[in-house]
Amino acid sequence: MRSVRIGVDTGGTFTDVVMVDEQTGEIVTTKTPSTPANPADGFMAGIEKILNGADPREVAQIVHGTTVATNQLLEERVSDLGFITTEGFEFVLEIGRQSVPDGYGNSYFWVKPPRIVPVHRVKTVGGRLDHLGREVRPFDEEGAVRVARWFRDRGITAIGVCFLHSYANPDHERRMRDVIAREHPDAVVSISSDVLREYREYERSVTTLVDAAVKPTMRRYIANLESRLRTPFSVMKSNGGVLSAAEVVHQPITTVLSGPAAGALGAALIARTAGHPSVITLDGGGTSTDVAVVIDGEPSLTTEGTIGRYPCKIPMIDIVTVGAGGGSIAWISPEGTLKVGPKSAGADPGPICYGKGGTEVTVTDAHVFLGRVPPHLLGGEIPLDLDAARAAIEALADKLGLTPERTATGILEISAFNQSNAIRQITVQRGLDVRDFPLVTFGGSGPLLACRLIDILGLPAVIVPPDPGNVSAFGLLTVDVKNDYVRTYVTRELSLDTAAAILGELEAQAAEALNREGFTEHVYQRSADLRYYGQAYEVRVPAPSGPVDEAWRDTVVAAFHEAHEKLYGYAYRDDPRHAVEWVNLRVSGIGPITRPTLRRIPAADGEPRPDHTRRVFFEKAEETPVYRRSDLAAGAVIRGPAVIEEYGSTLPVHPGFTATVDAYGNLEVRRDR
Predict the structure, then answer these.
(1) In the chain, how many domains are there?
(2) 90, 165, 163: which is closest to 121 by C-alpha?
(3) What DSSP element (H or E) covers 455?
(4) DSSP 3-state of 244
(5) Same domain, residue pair 270 and 384
(6) What is the pTM of this model?
(7) In this protein, which residues make up the domain named Acetophenone carboxylase-like C-terminal (predicted)?
(8) What is the rounded CA–CA span in Å between residue 169 and residue 415?
(9) 597 is a domain residue
(10) In this predicted structure, what is the pLDDT of residue 310?
């Protein structure tokens, strides 16, 4: 009996599925419409479709990228949530931070949003620890009982607990959890020392509350899938690793960027295999576009991420998301100007051309009107209503006083600039020159604006992988099991013995988790957060394995100076007035897997021939050759204007551009010199 692994990525419009045969290496892909009302239905439909009647016992593993937790936070479906903190600190959420979000140059125009937990559902318990974890006042057991009963009597079943300095000593939080379990057994509880054992009370509180908020939803979703599957499955995490479904229900916050993280990792492997170790990745879906940076084969990580308006200080791949997908809606502002997104038609009802009840013009409708996508999607599975798209574009053009062609082109131009702004945000604002990086673009709508992004940003090239609509699902099959652990240790005089003890404890925690996952081979990656004394925020740098000695400390400090200079343009290597301060020690425990092998494709034999022609509007409307991607061999060159079509995506090659097929079947798009 053969053995296969399946990756399932649930997006806003489509659920993408990839299957890899572990014996032959054969890769099979498919897509099915997402089911927003119950994502598990789309998941199961995708599994059944790709198996195509095969024996389900052949499935050795399923890995899932899900947006369940992300969507709950983005849509702010957070209710019946309670918060317990240290006596005297009940307003930690209300005070928050003084920073104003980007886009509000003048803080007078910014209104503080509602807190994740309103102040009337915040309760405090007596007891106090100092910053070293020493008990200053004993835990108030009677007060804890009263608080637990207060939440029980009001039916509040999701509770976050964050006590002052519990990162240094979790004892009081664990005792509070025990009290809640005894007095309010129906409650789902998250304690900050389990979620984020790191200092900064506000961020730790919100991160813990986000975990508590999504726990009930994720548990129901995972239970639904487990009841319908015969195969154990894993879930993609935001940090670039996976975790079994049985474990992920205990730390659901780690899944908040599940799908986008898989896409960045899949694109990184594809690009590295093709000889491009450092790239920008762009995942264009139906609802949004996700952008990340890969340097030397690894996506950049951050612990300063946010989901919607909630800061989440868990390690995650550094991804910028904008509402610029195929379903993004074109609309006219009160000032009479054309806007695109961030509101999306999603999968239901979808763009007007889907014929499912959509009434607002979308980016996909503009592509259809201009002839840049075929009159059907998924190889004919989803026919498109060209006449409906045309009528809607013409009606919008009448309101704007423009021709239909200019209106549709304008919609795509605005969408391209929205995507380019996201790319600048993750490159230029991080001190990187966007012109140094090829762009790997994927997702169903990702390749559609490739040529415009080259012109807008000055990119050297755009790489479009085979089956771009399924790269995120493919990425799920390239991911190791990975867990992250952190301990705050603020000091200017690092005790090597203390640092070694902390790292040893973290590695022991990582080993225990990997053993539960069934791994006998363990890999540990260390890192540390450092800053110059007096600074408010840290820089995370890698730390070597091996003995924690003077050479180890010097290596980490040297890496910090170099990283600080790269980020901010200066460093204080030889200035004793600016001491280096250690803040956090981190360990990632990794259980390595066997990754799929990407195969070379045969070389071209003669000039590629178009499959047919279609009237397409670029600078003007003209009959344009349309190529099937499956017919293109390595070395094939397609000069614009042209359109290259495949099952899950389309690449319009504009006049003045050339697409070349590389040895692995990727399309490299460049502007003609």
Answers:
(1) 5
(2) 90
(3) helix 450-457
(4) strand
(5) yes
(6) 0.85
(7) 502-666
(8) 49
(9) no
(10) 81
Looking at the DSSP bridge assignments, the partners of residue 497 are none
Residue 607 lies in a domain: no
Q: How far apart are CA 607 and CA 635, in angstroms?
A: 10
Phi first, then psi, for residue 21 (nearest 5°) are -80, 120
In a domain, residue 603? The reply is no
Characterize the bridge pairing of strands 642-645 and 650-653: antiparallel
- DSSP strand E in 435-522: where? 439-442, 462-464, 481-491
**Do residues 134 and 31 share a domain?**
no
Please give the residue range of the domain that contains residue 81.
77-219
- Whether the CB-CB separation of 616 and 606 falls below 8 Å is answered with no
Residues 159 and 185 in one domain: yes
Spatial distance between the Cα atoms of 1 and 126, rounded to a whole number of angstroms: 61
305 with 443, same domain?
yes
The separation between the first and the last C-alpha atoms of the chain, rounded to the nearest angstrom, is 53
Sign of CA dihedral 474, 478, 483, 485: negative
Looking at residue 269, its pLDDT comes to 93
Backbone angles phi, psi at 528, to 5 degrees: -145, 150
Helix, strand, coil share of the chain (percent; to 5): 35, 30, 35
Q: What is the identity of the amino acid at 155?
A: G
What's the rounded Cα separation, in Å, for the pair 469 and 423?
Answer: 20
In a domain, 632, yes or no: yes
Peptide bond connecting 596 to the previous residue in cis, omega within 30 degrees of 0 = no
Q: How far is CA 260 from the centre of its chain?
A: 3
Q: What is the domain-level CATH number for residue 49?
A: 3.30.420.40
Residues 6+ apart with CB under 8 A from 233: 61, 62, 63, 64, 225, 226, 244, 245
Please check whether residues 193 and 84 belong to one and the same domain.
Answer: yes
| Range 26-32 contact pairs with CB under 8 angstroms and sequence separation of 24 or more | 27/474, 27/596, 29/467, 29/469, 29/470, 29/473, 29/474, 29/647, 29/648, 30/470, 31/378, 31/444, 31/469, 31/470, 31/647, 31/648
Give bridge partners of residue 626 from the DSSP assignment.
612, 643
Collapsed DSSP state (helix, strand, coil) of residue 94:
helix
For residues 324 and 470, membership in a common domain is answered with yes
Q: What angle do CA 295, 296, 297 make, to 5 degrees?
A: 90
- Cβ contact 315:305 at 8 Å: no
For residue 576, which amino acid is it? P
Q: Are residues 194 and 270 in the same domain?
A: no
Residue whose tokens read 């009930």: 216
Rounded to an integer, what distance in angstroms lies between the CA atom of residue 332 and that of residue 321?
Answer: 23
pLDDT along the chain (673 residues), means of 10: 86 84 86 85 92 86 85 75 96 84 63 87 96 94 97 95 95 97 96 92 93 91 88 87 87 84 92 95 87 91 80 87 86 91 80 90 95 83 89 95 96 95 90 92 93 96 94 90 92 96 96 89 95 93 95 97 90 91 96 86 88 94 95 94 92 97 96 88
Residues in the chain: 673
CA distances from 68 to 74, 262, 287, 452, 614 (A): 10, 15, 14, 32, 39
Measured between alpha carbons, how far is 284 from 290 in angstroms, rounded to an integer?
7
Whether residue 154 is found in the same domain as residue 270: no
Which of 443, 462, 479 terminates a domain? The answer is: 479
252: helix, strand or coil: helix
